[in-house]
Amino acid sequence: MPALTPVLLEDAFVALEPLTPDHAPALEAAAADGEVWKLWFASTPAPGEMGAYIAKALEGHAAGLMLPFAVREKSSGEIVGTTRFYNYVDDPRRVAIGYTWYAKRWQKSHLNTACKRLLLQYAFETLGCVAVEFHTDHRNLDSQRAIERLGARREGVLRQHKRRPDGTLRDTVCFSVIDSEWPDVSRWLALRLERLAG
Question: Could you tell me which residue ranges the N-acetyltransferase domain spans (predicted)?
Fold first, then answer.
């Protein structure tokens, strides 16, 4: 089973840096842009909770289940959010992409497409995954549409699957991309990124 070793993933638009405690101040500032922790369906930590959020992500990495990243937008050089691989299993080898949030000014920009293209490429071409999963709250319609725009297919809904930050139970909508679909998805994401960033 290949280890989820910290790695820098980057292209012309974004750098996904291995998450460290040193990213906490910049991530606090990113979360403050739009107060994104107030979104009831989001996993964004509230003010003062970023250190614990990072520590928990790094515990997941130490257990071999997660690989968390800080997202640096290349044109500004700023840390603008975070994302990660999680739920990594070896047989059949698959992983989920999630825990993704961005400063408000970068939402609905080219940034998410760039990040997901890098993550999917690493999952399929380096980790050798047969499938990559995406999960989102059934009430988060923006997230569902964003995942569908990546070329992922909706698989179904896990009812009363997990707790939201406010303690209520959520239904989780599941999507995936499989290895045989990756060449077409890769071409689609390249075209989409060229259009969005152009």
Answer: 14-174
Name the nearest CA neighbour of 102 among 56, 71, 57, 138: 71
DSSP H helix total and E strand total for the chain: 5, 8
Q: Is residue 1 over pLDDT 60?
A: no
Strands 169-178 and 79-90 come out as: unpaired
For the stretch 106-131, what's the b/e string if a residue is b when 16 or more beta carbons lie within 10 angstroms of its beta carbon? bbeebbbbbbbbbbbbbbbeebebeb
pLDDT digits (tens, 9 = 90+) for 100-152: 999 998 888 899 999 999 999 999 999 999 999 999 999 888 889 989 999 99
Cα dihedral sign for 9, 13, 19, 21? positive
* Cα–Cα nearest to 10, from 136, 110, 119, 143: 119
Could you tell me whether strands 131-137 and 169-178 are parallel, antiparallel, or unpaired per DSSP bridges? Answer: antiparallel
Q: Do β-strands 169-178 and 93-102 pair in parallel, antiparallel, or remain unpaired?
A: unpaired
Q: What distance in Å separates the CA atoms of residue 196 and residue 194, rounded to the nearest whole number?
A: 6
pLDDT of residue 197: 78
